[in-house]
């Protein structure tokens, strides 16, 4: 008797708990849609060509745009790539090809540590290393901070993608008399190229959205970016300033800026997903 | 053994011994990659060194009392980090309380319940939450979440649970609760993605063994969960590491008032927020040094937390590999 | 089709009754058909072995007897499997209570990451089959004795099951399956991952258990089938080629294909 009731209870619990997990997944997706929905509605309604191309207007005037901030973000990304890509890709190659020893595992561990360092701390680091000696905030310092954030992402993707390349390919090149370095660069890295490129794209998407490391490096500015040793505007800095400011007009610009930023990041993420999709993979 | 005298090398046989300059390309290449690898190492060491050097002023002045004093007075240059430590710890723990059940539920749904394309699609959408920039969460928090909390959620909580000190006080909307909620949303994709991977690595024979003994699907899932528990703990700690260091979104919604309050409806301040708000205003060396010391503290704590988390996740992975071998 | 049935019935001795009967049973993995029109009678309290080359569907058929294939995405079945007159293929079947009656031992031992005691207790606990701690301990001792493991583990019941040797782990899994007193025990190549000594222990165990349980064992090892089973079914690419008493299958099979396989001419 009681065993029968026990079975009924267990089945009820089974349905109930598995139903709860479905609910959890639905909540997570609902939150995403809620956030994206707000950005789409509030952002798209104010978006226009002038907004994307003009400088901000002085306080009190309506209109004006975030053109300088978009340009600044692109420049900062470019500077970050100059720092992040060579270090990231070459140390990724080192880890994949020569990183079997103790130095390799230490390096791997430190790369993981770097992934977890809060971006604000990277900002302080760039400040002490570049801003203090140069005695000025600069695009250079901002780009450097973002570059440091890129490094671990690019390193680990490069390593993992190179390890996926079948060793027969490398051996084929070596058997044809190619020196090792040419086999690695010409065959292994090239075969892993798409994978590495998607890793780089994701790293760019990540740093495009960073604010904290720019606060006291690039600083932000109301003008078009001019030189790399001067303060530079950035989309995220502008959003932060506008969002926390008191004016309705600023809030409008903050939503517009976020719309542009999130659109850029989502496009990168979705296209990477689409490019790397595997029709034979079904999740299990 | 006697050398056969009648065997001679042909006149055209090449000398195949390695000389000083052979394989020079390989050695250069290896050296170049090594140099870049060493750069990462230098960066991390430099980071610790620079931050230590720049925070010595504050450390000399306040010593260990820096951690326990709650006065933060830039005018008289008296600095204690306790309110920020408190705010960071409480907001992170609050976010875990909210995010862990949600993330585990989502991960179980993805690994045990949903199949095929549905699972892949839902997993992608949840991971997109991690791609949204911090400043966007902050903006959304200020203009959507905070008004909602102030007008509806917090008065309702106060009415229902007002007998608890944590739900007492004026509903601000911009407060500890908002900070915890925003952080919860931000760590959910990390915890659920790692948990899902750990669960999917549990051998299916574990679940089948339970099912074959008459367990329900939920009971078999519990077996998988207990098999993966240290990895799941690792996932949660990874989320904690992210929450501790998160800056912009929290800065924008937590209220930025250095106080230690038991109520979730009161504004608070975190270590990352105080750095982001006051660093450019820190005119004196001591002020800046105190802020850098907070940064160093944050750095060390997150390193420890991350290392523990990675060790746990990595150990589960290794054990599963051994079990499969 | 009916004539085939009758022929098989005549091979089953009258003293035993049929425990499981499959009727025109077909099984599909997505678009791939794995089993074709299987008609088979499994006698009660006897050992029945499924033999055949790998991929012939013997494991799939075995896993249909406790609906374990339900856990694999995209599988489908058609036809009937009767167990004591109940169709266990019907979609509204309570698979949980079916699996309580049908125990299973897997190819690779799969103890839970718990103590030896808790492994055996698992089925008893989830199904709430014992009323007291004392009764639980009693059932666990009984099961471990049945699985010939008691003497080896009685002093370390509360240590991790993963510390046992491979053969001990597999006997623990057998004890775990026996603890809930199933009527049928399915064994999916239970000794394939074990060394000869451990294999011998498992085989002795099967011989001992055949008095109390209906045992169905899948094996790729023909000598093992000949040693442990009373009846043998030979499957080949998803079809049942021949079924009968083991000594007949191994000495004078009706089908030349069976004979070729038994004598090692293919497979």
Task: List strands and helices in order, with pairings.
The complex is a heterotrimer of chains A (about 280), B (about 325) and C (about 270).
Chain A (H helix, E strand, L loop, with lengths): L1 H43 L4 H5 L13 H32 L3 H15 L2 H16 L4 H26 L2 H9 L4 H12 L1 H16 L26 H10 L3 H28 L9
Helix pairs in contact in A: 1-11, 3-6, 3-9, 3-10, 4-6, 5-6, 6-9, 7-8, 9-11, 10-11
Chain B lengths: L23 H39 L2 H4 L3 E2 L4 E2 L2 H32 L2 H16 L2 H28 L14 H25 L3 H9 L4 H11 L1 H17 L2 H6 L17 H8 L6 H40 L1
Antiparallel strand pairs in B: 1-2
Chain C lengths: L1 H10 L6 E12 L2 E12 L3 E5 L6 H7 L10 E9 L2 E2 L7 H7 E4 L10 H11 L6 H14 L3 H4 L12 H14 L4 E5 L7 H14 L4 E5 L3 H7 L2 E6 L2 E7 H6 L4 H7 L5
Parallel strand pairs in C: 3-8, 3-9, 6-7, 7-8
Antiparallel strand pairs in C: 1-2, 1-4, 4-5, 9-10
Helix pairs in contact in C: 4-5, 4-7, 5-7, 7-8
- Count the E strands of chain C: 10
Beta-strand content of chain B: under 5%
Spatial ordering of strands, largest sheet of chain C: 6-7-8-3-9-10
Beta-strand level of the residues of chain C, as a percent range? Answer: 25-35%
Major sheet characteristics of chain C:
6 strands, mixed
| Large-scale geometry of chain C | globular
What is the first-to-last residue Cα distance of chain C?
27 Å
Structural class computed from helices and strand pairing of chain C: alpha/beta
CATH architectural name of chain B: Orthogonal Bundle
CA-based gyration radius of chain B: 28 Å
CATH topology of chain B: MetI-like fold
Low-confidence stretches of chain C: 1-14
Secondary-structure element order of chain B, N to C: HHEEHHHHHHHHHH
Oligomer: heterotrimer
What do you see in this structure?
The complex is a heterotrimer of chains A (284), B (325) and C (267). By secondary structure, chain A is an all-alpha fold. In chain A, helix 3 runs parallel beside helix 6, helix 3 crosses helix 9 and helix 9 packs antiparallel against helix 11. The longest helix of chain A has 43 residues. Chain B has 325 residues and is mostly helical. Chain B has one domain: MetI-like fold (Orthogonal Bundle). Chain B is 72% helix and 1% strand. Chain B is built from twelve helices and two strands. Chain B has a two-stranded antiparallel ribbon. The longest helix of chain B has 40 residues. Chain B starts with 23 loop residues before the first helix and ends with a helix. Helix content of chain C is 38%, strand content 25%. In chain C, the strands form two sheets. Chain C has a six-stranded mixed sheet with strand order 6-7-8-3-9-10, with helices on both faces. In chain C, strands 2-1-4-5 form a four-stranded antiparallel sheet, sandwiched between helices. The N terminus of chain C is likely disordered. Chain C contains eleven helices and ten strands. Chains A and B meet through helix 1, helix 3, helix 4, helix 5 and helix 6 of A and helix 1, helix 3, helix 4, helix 5 and helix 6 of B.
